[in-house]
Amino acid sequence: DAKTTQPPSMDCAEGRAANLPCNHSTISGNEYVYWYRQIHSQGPQYIIHGLKNNETNEMASLIITEDRKSSTLILPHATLRDTAVYYCMSGQGAQKLVFGQGTRLTINP
Amino acid sequence: KAGVTQTPRYLIKTRGQQVTLSCSPISGHRSVSWYQQTPGQGLQFLFEYFSETQRNKGNFPGRFSGRQFSNSRSEMNVSTLELGDSALYLCASSGGQVTGNTIYFGEGSWLTVV
Q1: Any CB–CB contact under 8 A between A34 and chain B?
Q2: For residues A24 and A90, is the Cβ–Cβ distance under 8 A?
Q3: Backbone phi, then psi, for B43, in 5-degree steps?
Q4: Are A47 and A82 in contact (CB under 8 A)?
Q5: Which chain A residue shows the shortest CA-CA distance from B95?
Q6: For B64-108, how does the pLDDT look when each residue is reduced to its tens digit (9 = 90+)?
């Protein structure tokens, strides 16, 4: 199964863009990259996913490198409510959904 | 559109008891999966159901079981509870026409075994 690596923690100022990196060097050709976040005591919230092309939705943008070995989640204008643990994962299917330790993002006022 | 709904949200059980957790998937989703999340082990896959059939199973003992009903709602049961079963149990659904394979989680059921 594909494995991901993320920095354990990051800080970002409120109103600035938060850029969260993820390394998924063992990703297979047909595996998607998914991003979720989890606020303490709540279930993981889906953010965005992509295969090859960059993606954008109302929550975030996802930039995937051409070799697909890494990606960056961008929260364009971070707010205090974006403080959470962000998980990057790659794969398909419920049984392959493996969350690593994630990145604990703290948005500072 | 309602999200994945799990009940109960919090419960406390005594060692040796059994517990049943319920999950209602997003309307139109036919796949329901269950996960256990603990600080030490992270997110671990329990099982997945599709059209009332268990499609995949994780590496958990037989004390953990589940089922899915014809309306896609699902339950999981843990018998002979152990202290180590204390965790956040997450249900997720997928398989909608628009959302495809994207997995959406419920808020979880916090189980404490004392």
Answers
A1: yes
A2: yes
A3: -90, 125
A4: no
A5: A93
A6: 999 999 999 999 999 999 999 999 999 999 987 666 788 999 999
